[in-house]
């Protein structure tokens, strides 16, 4: 029997699509096609498991089932009821539906979810006199319904909980970064783990932890092991174990990661999270104002996510960013620094010319991710280059 080929869609954040494309090519995905906030690809069941277990920049892996044109709720109900649901669900299984709508004809997601649930229930009742139940928290099958105008795309959610839930975060600070976003930011910097990685405003430690998982090649799923596909009827446990055994870490012990914060509570939380991720011993933690942080020498990488200002006056925030710029200029010669922030006004006060400026989103907030080169002589050389241009 030939292996079944799945068409899959990995969802991600705006701005991380290219990284996700390379991650997918790296695990052997076929027909990789970049979409908006998503990437379509194909592969066998092993690749489906591997995508969930290893992709750092994917939020979910959906497996499309059918696409229909539907004008109203009657048509929606009819096409759902007509599907062969017994291929995917037994009477003992549970299911849940999540609808996402961008349509004039369908405007209430709860209502659409209810209609789909009724159609599935009626399909089973007609044939077997009973039906599988709904479980919104821990269903055996999560069904994703996306309606854009009149096009309904039904998919199965193979991830279950979103993939940013890596399983290591047991404590969080006031404004923790999403783990998928943090992993994407680190990959965007191109950090190659040859020099030190520093986050002197580490909060709950998301950036240092994700940096280490990347450098040590520890899969983001190594702690979690809980995925939607593991409750599917066709789940192959041996195959999953094979994926896990093939995707181990690289055992390096020479990677230098430094995490500090002015808040002792934040550093305590970051340490707890790192311990839970089984990488605590690789991180050098300290509690201090960034002005008192002494960076290790070498060509290092700084990645920070300072406060955006929800709880601070703009003037104080501007002063904080000026302080960050001064610290970078004074003590981080030889480094490359990246600052991620939604506060564009404050970013202007860093007082360094960004070599690159990327746009990303943190939830609905537009953010800038700015690169500053602090290499010795880099400014003079750039000036010279400009004169010769
Ligand atoms: C937006 S949070 C960082 C969140 C972090 N990336 C995470 O994922 O949890 C900003 C952090 O900057 C820290 N901070 C603010 N002022 C600081 C200073 N002067 N020196 C060091 N850290 C500071 C705060 O305590 C807070 O933890």
Characterization of this structure:
The protein is of the alpha/beta class. It folds into 2 domains: 6-157, VC0802-like (2-Layer Sandwich); 179-219 and 226-385, Rossmann fold. The chain has 11 helices and 15 strands. The strands form 2 sheets. It has an 8-stranded mixed beta sheet with strand order 2-3-1-4-8-7-5-6. Helix 2 (45-54) crosses helix 7, helix 3 (73-81) packs parallel to helix 4 (109-128) and helix 5 (179-189) packs across helix 6 (206-215). The longest helix has 20 residues, at 109-128. The mean pLDDT is 93. The protein binds S-adenosylmethionine (SAM).
> What is the C-level CATH assignment of the largest domain?
Alpha Beta
Counted by DSSP, the helix tally is: 11
For the largest beta sheet, what order do the strands appear in spatially?
A: 2-3-1-4-8-7-5-6
Q: How many whole angstroms does the radius of gyration measure?
A: 24 Å
Secondary-structure blueprint of this entry?
Elements: E1 6-11, H1 17-26, E2 30-35, E3 38-43, H2 45-54, E4 60-69, H3 73-81, E5 94-102, H4 109-128, E6 133-134, E7 141-148, E8 151-157, H5 179-189, E9 197-199, H6 206-215, H7 237-246, E10 257-261, H8 264-276, E11 283-287, E12 301-304, H9 314-331, E13 336-341, H10 344-348, E14 356-362, E15 365-373, H11 378-388
Parallel strand pairs: 5-6, 5-7, 9-10, 9-12, 10-11, 12-13
Antiparallel strand pairs: 1-3, 1-4, 2-3, 4-8, 7-8, 13-15, 14-15
Helix pairs in contact: 2-7, 3-4, 5-6
The structure holds S-adenosylmethionine.
